[in-house]
Amino acid sequence: MQFDAPRPRGLGAAQWPRVRLAVSGRAISLLATSAAGAVAFAVYLATLAPTVMWYDMGEFVTTSATLGIAHNTGYPLLILVGKAFTFLPVGDTAYRVNLMSAVFTALAIAVVFGIIHDLTGDIIASAAGALTLAFASTVWANATWATSYGLNLFFTALVTRLMLSWWRDRQPRTLALAALSFGLGLCNHRLIVLVAPPSLLLLALGWRSLTPRAVMFATAAFLAGLSVYLYVPVRGEMEPAVSWARPANWHTYWSMFLNGQTPSAYWRVELADRIDVLWAYPSYDLTWAGLALAGAGAFICARQHRAIASYFVILIALDALVVETYSIHNVYNYLTPGYLALCVLIGVAAAWISDITRRAAARRAGVRPWLHAAIIAACLSLLPAALVAKNFSRVDRSGDRTAYDFAQTTLDRLPPRAVVMTDSWAASPLWYLQFVKGQRLDVIVSPIFSIPGEDVIAFTRRQIADGRPVYLAEGLRTPRGALSQDFAVQPVMLNGIEEMLVNTLPRPQYRDDLVATGSLFAVLDNAPETTVASVPPAAARDGAFAHGVTLAGFEAGDAVVPRGEVVQFTYYWRAERRIDVDLSAVTLFFDATGKAQSVRGIPVWSQSRELGQGVLQTSKWRPGAIVRESYFALAPRTLTPGDYEVRIAVFDGTAGAARAHEDARHLVTVGHITVR
Known about the structure:
- The protein is of the alpha+beta class.
- Helix content is 47%, strand content 14%.
- It folds into three domains: 28-66 and 77-172 and 189-205 and 268-395, no CATH class; 401-526; 531-676, abc- transporter (atp binding component) like domain (Coagulation Factor XIII, Chain A, domain 1), CATH 2.70.50.60.
């Protein structure tokens, strides 16, 4: 950047002269900004999820492709932008909507680069701050699948840059663009509201520049952006395939706009429980070194101009307040606006370091400017590079097809006119195959466990009375207990998907549960018969376990199974005596080296269940009775091809499945299977 006068210490309107860039300077700035966004995008693209994912991510893909309405608050802008991405000639539909997150997160990084560059004029420092934000694991992870957080980060960055630009030049059109961006951002995610208080601070301090005409244009621009919300009632009345807005009246849509819940449902004071989030997450995502730089940057910025420093400090403080008081399981994603502010301050500190070292180098004869720049660039790139090295394997979703495989396997095995009760976690990939891929439209997938106030028992009885087969597909934690009291809940497919962590960061008390393991249950009026007279000779085994139970037989439906496809396992158990407890079993698969493949200690292929097919617990077994169990299992795509031993452990189920390995009395090899 070339200023028409020596750059003053102040960064505010009173001391911040209009910048006059030479053509070469403007070109260099644009090239550097584009390069920062391109680097981020390239890494995001390499780790992008290839298809539909679980939970909101799958829902956003499906509602975008079908122009539906997502859960509260509707997310109309995300859906419309996502729909535009579905026309791209690359990957499947879900991949294209996932790509939207990568694109807008990368654009956010480019805008943050511009913010730092506007403040410092230092390209190297701007890259250091922007790329630190790019490779913070929470930001990066949300860039690899379809979420609202990448789009929110973009609008947060855009409004911030526009407001700082208005503070510098006081142009009404700049303020109008900021208001338009804010209105559009509200049509994506409410988290954008965090930029309102610091923006109002700048407006209050610069009120002398606010003419009635400027205020009028800004208001009109804001309403124009917010008008995207009209999509919800207009499209809601058309009753799209996936819609959380039931057409009724304007009160319904207003309720959705307001998040559909009473404030007390979301806003709870959890300071004692959440205080660890504010140190554990930022210290992991940005590192303690990054936080120290941000603190130094805040001090430096405050010395030069308090208004601009206050903007970022207020944004950080408000973000921390929301994280402390907002009741949502993935609250760590709400830290990203604060991360943006922190990374801008990291860039300010980096520019100060660069300036100090440049002056020191200038006093030493023989130190060339290019050598100084190279050394500074190498030093300031250490933090982003360290984040890439630390986080790449943790956020890489390029091979994750677990949700797609679960949905495909489930739909392939459902009888005609089946009803699948589930929560929104497991419903979304099923909807994707139905309404985007056109598969099994005869099946009803109801996210009944995610709908407040719904009577699950009454719903189940209505479906059975209508002659429909009823199934339960487990998401995170589906309350089967209530169903089990009135119906027989029989497992059909157990642990069809490998267990893996949704987020792998240290999230004290707020780490996401394990991903749904793809379990599928049949809900029946009467318990099926599970005892048999004898064991087929070919399946006979003799594996004795503690507690008086013997594995009398085992057979695999296919000795060779391709990754991503199912195999059927059948077990024959015999009670040697009366069993007083309800036993459980875990089936593990060991490779040729004698190890069970795992991801951060979690086996990638296992089956845990209560013995007795879910309807005849071991405490109900008659001595000498033979109980038959048959389940499907999906060989994970992440599994290394090769030969595997099938080993079983029996344990006391009252101790909890988490202690299966500790409580197991025996681990018996019962068969072999080849994965290719």
